[in-house]
């Protein structure tokens, strides 16, 4: 029989060809997109490719099919822009049916199907390659595999649950899905998600060709891993998984990981049954408020990342490689060390030799925690330089001041260093309470000064407020955003107003917690109420973490501190500043607050939480109306990523709008 081996004519997102050795190649290069994601059209086109391959394979006209990417990433997951169409469980099941059938057909093709992976292979992309016979990944730094779905309030829904268990075993697969961890290629190979590694992406095509010709087929998990699917062991594993998950998140806030554990515990002994039950458990999660709100949070994060300019004039030349930080206290040292972790060189300046030594020691602790190999740790150590006299300042691309919050001291410093800066270098202050316009007074070029307000702890909090003073030039603001994204943080452009955005919105919440404490509410009850609402920690514990002196200063600066003597000012006067002194609202031991055991009625905690959160919501609305940032969405983004405001609620403004809509519906 003669077959038509010409490429499929109407493909927009894939390129399909058959080479002289009768190997079919499907190259995913989604039209008009910088990143490959699986949406309706790419899946429909892949269906056509698989149908063509099936036709040719029946008579031996092709020896195998290779899936590759034409971009720097493989497949970053499903196209979540299309998720909003899924408004009912039945709609979810209807939409899932064709891709589920497609992956089954890929799995059953009579010729080998090989996935050649370079870049991100996440979520639905990983589910697709798990349906292939053989998976090859390169060892390049940008290649990662993982299941991030729980961060969107769901779990893998294209039968990735059963295929990952089949390939990696239940312990490895469930860990990958429950933690949303991104695996490096070597680690992915070690647990069974990948079958073969090549050094660079240049070797992928040749390796895929050999895999097809040798009819490679993955053996899947070994017998020891498969034993864990047996009933008694499976129940024990599920119990341990549930226990670890409860230690991290509340089931009423984030149900997806718990439903995944339930699915495994009930059906993990029979993967065929688990396959059909996966969709039944997945559909309600997809249409839940939690998933909708977490998808909103993902979009907000993408919005923040877009703050950095892409192709604006004059920006292409700015490549921040060297950072000079003045002030080796906790914030300054952590900023410098984080820049080093992000691949830059950082010099740290301080008048105190002792403070410099402490700063370098903090950096080395971070390197050990964040960098895997001793070689990487040693290289990072060499890139963090003590610079007491500021010799590296003239070479720096970014200069950040992080000294004491005193206006005259900052003004004097900036006047002194202005002449020493190289042309084009970003000049920034990490002030949390002073006006940029005041700090810039006396500078020959005040338009150069911008704010870079980091949050403590720097390694953990992803947001940096890029502060635009009335005098700040727009190109300096945009260069600062480029720097923030270069160190893997999210930039939020804010006006130079007291408290900027995050402290302005957070301070009323913290001051309300002080007022509640003074009114007789137990500290444990206050913090439990906030945690039940969804905050990462209670406000009193948070204040102890930040430092009560700093909280008191911010409260007074914003005019929110209670009149006269109060608990906060008294603790500060007594030198009880929180975690850093060992005592504040709590006594701290081994880095943890000592709490009294106490349980309260859920209704009581809900009422108290509403009282605590109300000032935060009110101030978020005022910040939006005062245009501290450009939109209400950016208010929500800043408060979520700067304070940890319950992500599953979608942000303070979104939460209030949702609550108002629900109240109106009840009243009607």
TrEMBL record:
3-hydroxyacyl-CoA dehydrogenase NAD binding domain location: 323-495
Pathway it works in: Lipid metabolism; fatty acid beta-oxidation
Domain 3-hydroxyacyl-CoA dehydrogenase C-terminal: start-end pairs: 499-588
InterPro entries linked to this entry: 3-OHacyl-CoA_DH_NAD-bd (IPR006176), 3HC_DH_C (IPR006108), 6-PGluconate_DH-like_C_sf (IPR008927), ClpP/crotonase-like_dom_sf (IPR029045), Enoyl-CoA_hydra/iso (IPR001753), FA_oxidation_alpha_subunit (IPR050136), NAD(P)-bd_dom_sf (IPR036291)
SUPFAM superfamilies: 6-phosphogluconate dehydrogenase C-terminal domain-like, ClpP/crotonase, NAD(P)-binding Rossmann-fold domains
Reactions catalysed, as given in the entry: a (3S)-3-hydroxyacyl-CoA + NAD(+) = a 3-oxoacyl-CoA + NADH + H(+)
Keywords on record: Fatty acid metabolism, Lipid degradation, Lipid metabolism, Lyase, Multifunctional enzyme, NAD, Oxidoreductase
Source organism superkingdom: Bacteria
Family indicated by similarity: In the central section; belongs to the 3-hydroxyacyl-CoA dehydrogenase family.
Name this polypeptide is given: 3-hydroxyacyl-CoA dehydrogenase NAD-binding domain-containing protein
Organism annotation: Methyloligella solikamskensis
């Amino acid at each position: 029989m003669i077959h038509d081996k010409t490429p499929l004519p109407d493909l927009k997102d894939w390129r399909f060809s058959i080479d002289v050795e009768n190997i079919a190649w499907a190259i995913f290069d989604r039209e008009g997109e910088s990143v490959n994601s699986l949406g309706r059209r790419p899946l429909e086109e892949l269906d056509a490719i698989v149908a063509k391959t099936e036709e040719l394979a029946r008579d031996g006209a092709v020896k195998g099919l290779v899936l590759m990417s034409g971009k720097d990433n493989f497949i970053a997951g499903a196209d979540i822009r299309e998720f909003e169409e899924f408004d009912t469980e039945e709609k979810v099941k209807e939409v899932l049916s064709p891709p589920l059938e497609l992956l089954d057909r890929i799995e059953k093709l009579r010729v080998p199907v090989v996935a050649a992976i370079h870049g991100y292979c996440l979520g639905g992309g990983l589910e697709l390659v798990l349906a292939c016979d053989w998976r090859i990944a390169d060892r390049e730094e940008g290649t990662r595999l993982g299941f991030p779905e729980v961060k969107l309030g769901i779990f893998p829904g294209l039968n990735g649950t059963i295929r990952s268990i089949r390939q990696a075993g239940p312990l490895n697969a469930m860990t990958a899905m429950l933690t949303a961890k991104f695996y490096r290629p070597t680690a992915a190979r070690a647990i069974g998600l990948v079958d073969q590694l090549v050094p660079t992406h240049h070797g992928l095509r040749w390796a895929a060709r050999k895999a097809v010709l040798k009819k490679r087929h993955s053996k899947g998990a070994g017998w020891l891993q498969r034993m864990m699917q047996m009933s008694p062991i499976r129940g024990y594993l599920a119990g341990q998984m549930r226990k670890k998950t409860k230690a991290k998140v509340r089931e009423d806030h984030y149900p997806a990981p718990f439903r995944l554990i339930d699915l495994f515990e009930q059906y993990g002994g029979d993967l065929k049954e688990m396959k059909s039950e996966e969709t039944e458990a997945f559909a309600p999660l997809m249409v839940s408020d939690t998933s909708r709100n977490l998808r909103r949070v993902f979009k907000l994060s993408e919005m923040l990342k877009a703050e950095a300019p892409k192709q604006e004039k004059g920006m292409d030349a700015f490549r921040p490689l060297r950072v000079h930080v003045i002030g080796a206290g906790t914030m300054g040292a952590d900023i410098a060390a984080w820049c080093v972790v992000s691949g830059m060189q950082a010099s740290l300046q301080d008048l105190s030799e002792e403070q410099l030594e402490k700063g370098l020691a903090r950096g080395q602790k971070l390197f050990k925690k964040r960098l895997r190999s001793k070689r990487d740790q040693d290289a990072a150590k060499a890139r963090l330089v003590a610079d007491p006299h500021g010799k590296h300042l003239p070479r720096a691309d970014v200069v950040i001041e992080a000294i004491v919050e005193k206006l005259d001291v900052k003004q004097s410093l900036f006047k002194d260093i202005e002449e020493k800066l190289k042309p084009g270098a970003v000049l920034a202050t990490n002030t949390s309470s002073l006006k940029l316009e005041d700090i810039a007074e006396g500078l020959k070029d005040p338009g150069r000064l911008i704010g870079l307000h980091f949050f403590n702890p720097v390694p953990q909090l992803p947001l940096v407020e890029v502060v635009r003073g009335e005098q700040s030039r727009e190109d300096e603001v945009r260069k600062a955003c480029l720097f923030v994204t270069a160190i893997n943080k999210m930039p939020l452009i804010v006006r130079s107003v007291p408290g900027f955005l995050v402290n302005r919105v957070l301070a009323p919440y913290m001051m309300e917690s002080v007022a509640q404490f003074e009114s007789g509410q137990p500290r444990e009850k206050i913090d439990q109420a906030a945690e039940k609402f969804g905050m990462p920690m209670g406000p009193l514990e948070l204040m102890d973490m930040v430092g009560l002196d700093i909280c008191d200063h911010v409260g007074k600066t914003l005019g929110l501190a209670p009149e006269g003597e109060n608990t906060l000012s008294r603790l500060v006067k007594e030198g009880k500043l929180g975690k850093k002194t060992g005592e504040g609202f709590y006594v701290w031991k081994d880095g943890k607050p000592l709490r009294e055991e106490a349980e309260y009625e859920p209704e009581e905690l809900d009422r108290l939480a509403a009282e605590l959160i109300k000032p935060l919501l009110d101030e978020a609305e005022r910040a939006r109306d005062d245009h501290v940032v450009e939109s209400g969405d950016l208010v929500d983004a800043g408060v979520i990523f700067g304070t940890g405001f319950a992500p599953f609620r979608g942000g303070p403004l979104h939460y209030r709008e949702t609550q108002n809509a629900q109240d109106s519906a009840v009243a009607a």
